[in-house]
């Protein structure tokens, strides 16, 4: 009797508890239809949580596909420049700041084009027309920093003639100084050489005297 009752009840035709859902079916099938508390299930009007563990977004299942695919900040995401994998949040908020292939503009705005981040330092130090560079006459005292594109015009500036004249004068003075120092060194080495020769001569004389004394001594010893 009881079994009959439950068969009758379970066989009752019911509507889905989510009002906008068009589902109608046996009472025994409604829990499968709703699959409460689970992300996946037949009823698209049942509220569920985003499938990514760290995301707390809840919505009707029919909206979750779009959220998980295009919106969720915890969705799987690949850097489109270097193909590194991560979540949307980790790639766009963290990785983009140091991705070597991320496209950036030259800080001098020399072009509208972008370049991969790893190319920038070579661009700045060898190519960028808007980068200030040292004047070729820096050694002569020009501290101007013309833009790389203007270097030739700057180099031709007549002010360098004055600078070069001063620098030449300085060099001449230094040359004279060096010459003076050189002749001093020569003088001193000649002095040293002469002294050495004197000393050698004295030594030879001493040796000669000693030799003579020796042979005289031998002579005396020979006489018994
Ligand atoms: Zn339903
Ligand atoms: Zn989410
Ligand atoms: Zn990257
Ligand atoms: Zn540039
Ligand atoms: Zn210069």
TrEMBL record:
Keyword Zinc: yes
Pfam families according to UniProt: zf-TRAF
Coiled-coil regions, chain positions: 168-195
SUPFAM superfamilies: TRAF domain-like
Residues in TRAF-type domain copies: 32-82, 95-142
Protein name (Swiss-Prot/TrEMBL): TRAF-type domain-containing protein
InterPro entries, alphabetized: Znf_RING/FYVE/PHD, Znf_TRAF
Zinc fingers (TRAF-type), renumbered ranges: 32-82, 95-142
Keywords: Coiled coil, Metal-binding, Zinc, Zinc-finger
Lineage: Eukaryota, Metazoa, Porifera, Demospongiae, Heteroscleromorpha
GO molecular function: zinc ion binding
């Amino acid at each position: 009797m009881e079994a009959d009752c439950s068969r009758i009840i379970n066989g009752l035709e019911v509507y889905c508890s989510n009002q906008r859902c068009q589902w109608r079916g046996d009472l025994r099938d409604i829990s499968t239809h709703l699959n409460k508390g689970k992300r996946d299930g037949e009823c698209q009007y049942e509220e569920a949580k985003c499938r990514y563990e760290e995301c707390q977004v809840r919505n009707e299942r029919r909206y979750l596909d779009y959220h998980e695919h295009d919106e969720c900040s915890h969705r799987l995401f690949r850097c489109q420049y270097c193909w590194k994998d991560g979540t949307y949040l980790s790639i766009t908020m963290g990785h983009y700041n140091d991705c070597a292939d991320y496209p950036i503009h030259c800080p001098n705005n020399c072009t509208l084009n972008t370049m991969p981040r790893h190319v920038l330092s070579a661009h700045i130090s060898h190519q960028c027309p808007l980068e200030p560079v040292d004047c070729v006459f820096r050694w002569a005292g020009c501290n101007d920093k013309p833009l790389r594109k203007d270097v030739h015009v700057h180099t031709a500036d007549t002010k360098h003639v004055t600078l070069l004249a001063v620098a030449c004068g300085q060099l001449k003075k230094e040359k004279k100084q060096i010459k003076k120092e050189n002749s001093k060194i020569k003088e001193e080495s000649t002095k040293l050489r002469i002294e050495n020769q004197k000393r050698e001569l004295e030594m030879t004389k001493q040796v000669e005297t000693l030799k003579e004394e020796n042979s005289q001594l031998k002579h005396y010893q020979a006489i018994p």
